[in-house]
Design goal:
Helices cover 42% and strands 14% of the residues. It is α/β, with parallel strands linked by helices and 359 residues long. The strands form three sheets. A seven-stranded parallel β-sheet has the order 3-2-1-4-5-6-10, sandwiched between helices. A three-stranded mixed β-sheet has the order 8-11-12. A two-stranded parallel ribbon has the order 7-9.
Amino acid sequence: MKNVLVTGGAGFIGSNFVRYLLEVDSRVQIVNLDALTYAGSLENLKDLPDAKRHIFVQGDICDRELVPTLLHQHQIDTIVHFAAETHVDRSILGPEPFIKTNVFGTFNLLEAARQVWLAEKSLPLEQVRFHHVSTDEVYGTLKPNDPAFSETTPYAPNSPYAASKAASDHLARSYHHTYEVPVTISNCSNNYGPRQFPEKLIPLVILNALSGKPLPVYGDGQQIRDWLYVADHCEAIYLILTKGGPGETYNVGGNNQPPNLTIIETICDLLDEIRPQTQSRRKLIQFVTDRPGHDRRYAMNISKIERDLDWSPRHNLTDGLLETVQWILANPQWVAAIQTQREYQTWLTKNYEKREKSS
Ligand code: NAD
Ligand code: TYD
């Protein structure tokens, strides 16, 4: 791995991965292709370690000319594909960009890899790799006593977001099976940590709680996610790239599965401790109309990656939430850049205004 194309590297996980890769591997050069949608920001790429090994290109993964040009120009041997539309609630209110970016964009990247690496034989096949970053949401939802998702659980996506990611996973798998593009796939559970866009539960609750705004709980708040600290996800991806076999899929998860309401209460308690005030922030919790088709429970069986790549999550939820809160408090300029974005305020109104409230 010498010349790495990271897609979506100005977003949450992508920017954490760019930082991680520059730190752990002094040989790599990174080309970061990102369209800078509402979710991407150059703020996320400030103060990179050894920034001279990082080139930022603003562009769309759906661009049929740009992607092969970048592969040629930079002799790309590794693609790590994060770029996507990622928010379930947005996919419910407007699915089209999800199909464009997640399905067509992934297809365009795979096609470019096939063209340049296989048809033109730009590099020996054993030196190239396409890693596709995906989600546990492709597996659908679990009942309380169902076993956790494994790599062989049948796909049953329930939201337009999950369906678009499932489609992209199938394309990635097929390019390995049919054309022998050296593809790996990771399906990871919910991430949290520094630089997560505050439309997602954890940063939304932290920012709302800090400014005394209501903390919206969808439905009864008893839905379960398998939370993973973002740095642990980055480490898993690096291990898959360096030790994982072409054609393999790995499930990645955090072994942290409290209900949403417990997470929200924990954040309130943490903030009350760090920034005490007269009234507990738990008072801000507000139950609101549920998300349509809301998946009840996710849980990941991570025994394959533990066994084959010797990976396991390093952070528990208590440490990870504390680090996340501390990062947000230490980076007010990052918070201000998002909170003053008109698009973000419009989103908050669109998503929350019409939800009925109950206490
Ligand atoms: P994010 O929404 O924070 O960032 C997505 C990035 O992709 C943004 O920088 C955006 O500008 C860029 N982008 C969007 N459309 C693009 C396009 N057409 N061309 C180029 N760039 C484009 O997302 P994230 O949370 O960092 O997720 C990254 C990846 O990880 C996604 O593929 C997602 O499905 C997957 N994933 C996320 C989670 C999670 O909890 N966040 C969990 C598992 C898997
Ligand atoms: P989210 O962060 O949007 O991730 P995902 O939908 O990919 O799991 O949501 C995490 C959980 O939190 C999910 O069960 C929905 C719930 N949720 C709320 O209860 N309130 C909110 O305001 C948001 C954004 C999410």
